[in-house]
Amino acid sequence: MSQAQKDITSWSDKSGSFKRQVSSFRDVIEPNGKFPPEKGRYHLYVSLACPWAHRALIVRKLKGLEDFFDVSTVHPHMLEKGWHFAKSEENVKPANEHSDDTFPEATKDKLFGYSHLRDIYFKVQPDYSARFTVPIIYDKKTNSIVNNESSEIIRFLNTAFNDEISDENKKSLDLYPKELRKEIDELNEWVYNDVNNGVYKSGFATTQQAYEEAVKPLSKGLQKLEEILSDGREFLIGGRLTEADIRLYTTIVRYDPVYYVHFKCNFGLIRHDFPHLHKWLQRLYWKNPAFKDTTNFEHIKEHYYYSHKHINPFKIVPLGPNVDIEPLKE
Ligand SMILES: N[C@@H](CCC(=O)N[C@@H](CS)C(=O)NCC(=O)O)C(=O)O
């Protein structure tokens, strides 16, 4: 059986620890480069459920790149052949009817009308044998995948189109400013290992030991973040919004509705046990539409609970929490 057809737990090694694959496509969009910035040339494939793809959607909106990239959005059910597209975008059933064919805000593959995301990978590389992940930046001109690694995608979206962006605020917004790079890189590194990927390592562990080895650093990581934010600061680093906030946000916003239950990260709820982290989350969500408008709790919940049959074989999607994000009181 090819890697592509295996269950997600096949990412685990012998010890039962989850090992995330290294992304395959690592080019960049940059002026005068192999992939120069051109309006309408590139397409973004995402899942609204996926925290990695969510990073790209936030930066696309913060930088005002909606007209530069159109987006195809996969259906939240990730089934045997991986992510698939909606069969129809009309007469869409409500999210709670669990249709594999349609879902509010899931789209068709707008470029090729393919049924599955894997078809894009095979079009570009017929012998592709790794996982079929989102996000993808696809180049319509050369029919290739520019990049499928979110940490790199958000870096080049931050700068590549600056000469073409007309809104001055969006053009000058720098999410990775030179003077903060060292601090951002340091924070990103442990946040990635212990928190962003930590929730997956906890949830996909197949031994008790592997689970505990993941969930303990995750618990410590959240405590550390809580301490950093305990002075009431609005952003993690430098008193301004940076990619460090974006990278953490997409994990924390999924924490109470999904990771706490589904991935057994249940030593604390963000809303009850991490008041400063909670306030930081609420501010990003309620004060900046780039965060709120790209956060879709229906896709998020439906995807995780419905797609990981080794964790939740009956695909029951819990109804709670009653409130997705509590209102901000300041
Ligand atoms: N390193 C990648 C990870 C992306 C990733 O793992 N995406 C998940 C969704 S959350 C995916 O598409 N998984 C499909 C699969 O494993 O078959 C990134 O940050 O862009």
Automatic annotation (TrEMBL):
GO terms for cellular component: cytoplasm. InterPro entries: Glutathione-S-Trfase_C-like (IPR010987), Glutathione-S-Trfase_C_sf (IPR036282), Glutathione_S-Trfase (IPR040079), Glutathione_S-Trfase_N (IPR004045), GST_Omega-like_C (IPR047047), GST_Omega/GSH (IPR016639), Thioredoxin-like_sf (IPR036249). GO terms for molecular function: glutathione dehydrogenase (ascorbate) activity; glutathione transferase activity. One of its GO terms (biological process) is cell wall organization. The keyword Hydrolase does not apply. The active site is at C50 (nucleophile), Y200 (proton donor/acceptor). It is found in: Cytoplasm. It catalyses: RX + glutathione = an S-substituted glutathione + a halide anion + H(+); L-dehydroascorbate + 2 glutathione = glutathione disulfide + L-ascorbate. It comes from the Eukaryota. Glutathione binds at W83, R131, F132, T133, V134, E149, S150. Residues 177-314 form the GST C-terminal domain. Active as '1-Cys' thiol transferase against beta-hydroxyethyl disulfide (HED), as dehydroascorbate reductase and as dimethylarsinic acid reductase, while not active against the standard GST substrate 1-chloro-2,4-dinitrobenzene (CDNB). May be involved in cell wall organization and biogenesis. Belongs to the GST superfamily. Omega family. This is Glutathione S-transferase omega-like 2. It comes from Kwoniella dendrophila CBS 6074. The lineage of its organism: Eukaryota, Fungi, Dikarya, Basidiomycota, Agaricomycotina.
